[in-house]
Amino acid sequence: MVPLLNALPMVQALVLMSLYMFMPLIIFMSGYDLKVMWYGTLAIFTVKFWTVMWSVAQWIDAKLIDAMYPGLSGSAVMQEITQSFASGQPQLYKRMILNTLLMLMFIGLPLIWSAMMAWIGFNMGVERGVLDQTRSYGKSTGSIPTPKAGRK
């Protein structure tokens, strides 16, 4: 689990670097479309918020063992000694499954968050709403009004 926890911030930094690197080019190639800028902002916010998801997963990791085995201070040896004799089931096996599930939370929570934000971004692009209104306002600001026929 330690290599995963060390690699996640590095992955986040590389993803942010690629977003920052390609964002000006994408915005230029889109003709400075406001929708593309909103998508870029949403993508950067999503990736930056992964840190919060990792903090939540780390908090759950720290508190769940203590909640499941109160009074044992998270000691795997004490859990094995005290609870395997009482229940007849090996506790280290349960601990291994729990650690695997908690490790998957460090990947799963950011994936769920990213999927939800992608859904928001998709709906933002599909529905006609605020972005189309701002585009029409932007186009109308530089236009010169045409004189009506019959006026002198």
Radius of gyration: 26 Å
The pLDDT mean sits at 80
What is the number of E strands?
0
**What overall geometry do the principal axes of the alpha carbons give?**
elongated
Distance linking N and C termini: 80 Å
- Uncertain runs with pLDDT below 50, 5 residues or more? none
The helix-and-strand class reads mainly alpha
Q: In percent, how helical is the residue content?
A: over 70%
What is the strand content? under 5%
How are helices and strands ordered from N to C?
Answer: HHHHHH
Largest sheet entry: none
Number of helices: 6
Quaternary organisation of the protein chains: single chain
Please tell me about this protein's structure.
The protein is mainly alpha-helical and 152 residues long. It has helices spanning 2-29, 34-48, 50-68, 76-87, 91-126, 130-141. Helix 2 runs antiparallel to helix 5. The longest helix has 36 residues, at 91-126. It is elongated, with a radius of gyration of 26 Å. The relative contact order is 0.11. The model has no long low-confidence stretch (mean pLDDT 80).
